[in-house]
Amino acid sequence: MSSDLAIAHQSSPRPGLKIPGHIGVIMDGNGRWAKARGKPRTEGHIEGVNALRRMVELCIRYGVGHLTVFSFSSENWARPRDEINFIFSLLRRFVASDLQKLIAHNVRVRIIGAREGLDDSLRRLIEDVEAKTARNTGLNLHVAFNYGSKAEITEAVRHIARAVAAGELLPAEINEGTVERALYTSGIPDPDVIIRTSGEQRVSNFLLWQGAYSELVFVEDNWPDFDEHTFLRVLDEYAMRERRFGGVEVARQ
Ligand code: IPE
Ligand code: IPE
Ligand code: MG
């Protein structure tokens, strides 16, 4: 398996596919993938990074505009310290090994999540990655790291309350746009589809506001097994969904 990002430009996407503008992924099942093979959970996380590379390649090849991946949740602090340290070290290793390729492939990287609780060197790394890719205009890769929707919304409420207390905003002026602009994802379109791997059917505090109208697709594969075949199955499923946004069915042309 390739250990770095190798974008295959030669294969052309299948005609007739409906490509979502924004895909969110709850990358779940690394531990079970490892356990099924008699390996430590850490091996599952390593393979999970390889699956992430595959997913980035696929999104570039198929012309997906935004990819948001859930890589560490605000609730994952409940895990053993060793596992947390390992996941954090993987983020560092991913940046070290893949940043140049991401830049070469015009990928803009943003890390969404709470910066509190991260040590200074990790914060600097995140700022560096964001700055070095800020002018890229290809795939937008959003890494949800130390991310939880409830914490995000709570922080947004605090931010808005401060503006009200400072006399900069009237309560009556607060609308959905005010809230959206106070989220980590300000300016990023909502996900069209949210995929969760490993057969679990819950959202685990991922993009609760932004995913209000996302199509949810649950796949049985554990995240390390996610490949082009799975990706195309998800796109086929997505193409069959009728998105109404509260309206009524629009006659197909
Ligand atoms: C997803 O895989 C990765 C993270 C949550 C960091 P898990 O580590 O949750 O794997 P399972 O769900 O235990 O199999
Ligand atoms: C969700 O997976 C978080 C990430 C994929 C980073 P979890 O494995 O933490 O979710 P639960 O605990 O099964 O809901
Ligand atoms: Mg899990």
Commentary on this structure:
There is one protein chain. The chain has 253 residues and is α/β, with parallel strands linked by helices. The protein has a domain at 22-148 and 193-238: Undecaprenyl pyrophosphate synthetase. The protein contains seven helices and six strands, in the order E-H-H-E-H-E-H-E-H-H-E-E-H. The protein has helices at 30-36, 41-62, 81-104, 120-133, 149-165, 176-181, 228-240; strands at 22-26, 66-73, 108-112, 140-147, 193-196, 215-218. Strands 3-4-2-1-5-6 form a six-stranded parallel sheet, with helices on both faces. Helix 2 runs parallel beside helix 3. It is globular, with a radius of gyration of 19 Å. The site of one 3-methylbut-3-enyl trihydrogen diphosphate has 10 residues, from helix 1.
